[in-house]
Amino acid sequence: MMKKLIIGLFAFLPTLSMASGPDVELQHAKIDLTDKASLQRGAKLFMNYCLGCHQMQYQRYERTFRDIGIPVEIGKEQLIFDGSKVGSHILNAVKKDDAAKWFGAAPPDLTLIARVKSPDYIYTYLKSFYKDESRPFGVNNIVFPSVGMPHVLQELQGLPTPVTHEVEEHGHKVTKVVGTEVDGSGELSTDEYDQAARDITNFLEYVGEPTRLTSESIGIKVLGFLVILFILAFLLKKEYWRDVH
Please, what's the largest Cα pairwise distance for the chain? Predict the structure, then answer.
């Protein structure tokens, strides 16, 4: 399994490297892996808006449902759309060759995206789409210039317009997009969309390391045990050496 993870990671790293983008200040996502309601909303948004192109080939439906508190039957009924078994990996039916023709490059697997790019990057990316009629899908992204994907959350956010600013580079004035302005056509308010972006980011952070909370809990217990063991060993040492001194 570890071998597959390493191979999968290096397989889509070249695609991710294209998304380095300009020097953009990332917004803090403020995620919370203990917030199961957020994780459940993030899973719902991902399955409805992202899974059509982006797979999670190292994550299983059943494991996901169990970890974030979704009853298996409800998850099977409402979050599995292609008839996959609940024990299956989270995959889609898009062929890589077709996706490469449509988007210019095959959409990367997102199982480890939060570990590769960071939650703040994902959160800022989801909030940085703006209208750009020169692009094939009519949108661009501040974090990922010349992005090859549509703004799949457009019905929720609306279609933001770019906020530009003139700067001087190498003796020439250049117009740069420094922000976006929401047009109000989305189903969600600005705060609601921010929360939706945070929920998706939270879910992707969980998927990148499903055992993180368990590992942290075990780590704290081990450290506590070592502290107690140290104290006992120190007291035992003093007892052994008491007569010598």
Answer: 86
